[in-house]
From TrEMBL:
This is DUF8154 domain-containing protein. It comes from Halorussus caseinilyticus. Residues 1-159 form the DUF8154 domain.
């Protein structure tokens, strides 16, 4: 790629984000409630991770998407319970889950440890992502998401 090609591609990407989407993503297109937006982002991440898992590969992406889906699902629950979650770091959302009564401090500590020791390792390639790791983290993300949906009795979930 030449610098002219890069500059052209960059300009097109910059322009694209200045325009109103012509074909917006269904389910996320006109959501104004921030908690519902977080829930639906989790739905889409789980759908994408499940699709990639079925294709038998892309384990690093599956692990990353699953951890983000966990965060978005917890954020939805916390906001639904009336707590503010603005501006937290990745791992702080687990403490917010405790504060909102979603799980115990022990579970929060274990989730945070799992994230710190494994998400970062997989993402930054200091560890090797594998199928079993991807499957189990994806299963954890699905389980937590389903529990959040059941506990809140929301009808806004896009899964299923």
């Amino acid at each position: 790629m030449t610098s002219n090609e890069l500059a052209e591609a960059l300009g097109e990407a910059e322009d694209a984000f200045q325009r109103r989407p012509e074909n917006p993503e269904v389910g996320l297109e006109y959501v104004s409630d921030s908690s519902v937006l977080q829930l639906r982002k989790a739905c889409r991440l789980l759908d994408a991770a499940g699709f990639l898992l079925d294709r038998n590969g892309h384990f690093t992406v599956i692990i990353e998407a699953s951890f983000v889906a966990i965060e978005r699902s917890i954020q939805f629950y916390v906001e639904e319970k009336g707590y503010d979650v603005a501006g937290q770091r990745h791992t702080e959302v687990y403490d917010e889950g405790v504060r909102a009564g979603l799980f115990t401090q022990d579970v929060a500590d274990r989730l945070e440890k799992l994230w710190v020791e494994n998400r970062s390792e997989s993402y930054y390639r200091t560890g090797i992502a594998g199928e079993y790791r991807a499957e189990t983290v994806f299963s954890l993300a699905e389980t937590l998401h389903e529990e959040v949906v059941a506990l809140t009795r929301t009808q806004d979930c896009l899964c299923g």
